[in-house]
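Researcher: For the annotation table, I need structure tokens for Oxidoreductase AflY. Please keep the output clean. Sequence:
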Amino acid sequence: MAPARAALTALSQRLFPAPSVFRSKLSPSLWAGVTSDSTKTLQRVLQDNHNKWHVYFNEEGFHNHASHHVLATWALGANAQLIQAAYKSNEQREAFKSPEPITKDNFYAHLGDDKYYNSYMEFFRRALEQQGISSVLEEYFFAQEANFPNDGHDSRLMLNRLMDSLYHPMIHIGYGLEFGLPGMLVEGLAQAAIHQALWPAMTPPSLWAEGSPVKSSEYSSGQHIFDILADMAIDSNFARIVNPDPESMAILYHTYFDHQVAVLAYAKRWVVDTASTADVQKKLEELVWLVTLIYGVGGWKRDAGFEADFFYMHLVTSSLFLSSYVNHLSAASLKKLLESYCTFALMWWVARGRPPLDIAGFFATDIPTSSQMSAVSSDALTFDAATSTAAPPNPWLPIINSTLIHPDNHIAKLQRALAHYSTVYGERAAGQEDFARTKLIGAEKLDGSLFIRVAALSAEKLGRVAEGEKASDWYRDGFYHTA
């Protein structure tokens, strides 16, 4: 092997070792099925993706999801053949050399310019080797210098870039944190640097106000996110958001400009006390229910069924990685991350039309969580002699089977997140006081079946391909009023 190629191979192996999983209640466990062969295939395709392809697969800035797809399927127990097939199914754009290197001196000069992706990767690779991920995140994304230097008269907005474009940079870095993969960290950090910060008001200078406490005195324990949702749901300012051109994404920017001040005011009522581990865990749980309600219940109507919204889906998939940041950030930076994440989630709810959340109707409706199995032995415990069928003993198993072989590169991320939330929160019974005492209409009906219900609706809408159904696509029209 030529020396240059050998050096590249050695570097790739350092960047993408076998994944290691940090064990905590809020971090997902691996599903049964992971093997040495599947792990080696995963490493090989991650290295290939890193060396060959740009993080955007086209000139419009659409994201390369290959690494997300293969990591999610690997973690769900996919075999080596499926991991390879998932990698090949993703459209890509060849990587290219940047116009010049990125250094400390010009780091902020090329933000938002995807031509500098490779140079930002090399910059962050060296920074990670010298500083480690916690120090890099603090210096380049959470420090005031990285966001609003010169007393706020200049803006670099690195935290905003981390959240930009449906949290894609945050997700990418999150995979690196969850699985201990330096290569994913390098790619994700560089991806954040080339994002645009299109909703700048969502991370205001006040986050870096001198002496800003980790714990807020205005809301000593913070308002429950359901109380904030309830107030936003009846706010007439959001009542009739009209999209004049369904073929254009301009509505996302119109709603941002029209409603940024109001959304930010609501978001400021949600406060995280990061000096308290218990409050961090509580607020992480609130975010899980928030994003699942927006995607699952917000996408459902009693008479119209379910629409699996492409944009709201990203709220669920991104939320899975918040817990991976907890052990890598200072209390002050973790507060900025979680509160900014919530702000963006509320803005997305409004930007897509703020659909109503009919919780009572959703839970009063019989939502089949699985289809019937055929060719079941009459010895089976759940065998139905009248139909010669039986319900799947675990409704998650057929959902995950279809997920693993589905051609879409987002569905595995979604179902992995929902399955994990079902594991952590699935035992919750309806009527518990912390939900019932909030102002959100129907909150007393919420129970842990939310996650399997939403997963089943998503599987049905996208196509249960393992059961012979055709693959379908995400809903992109939004929930706007007609003019």
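Researcher: And a one-line annotation?
Model: The beta strands are 300-301, 305-306.
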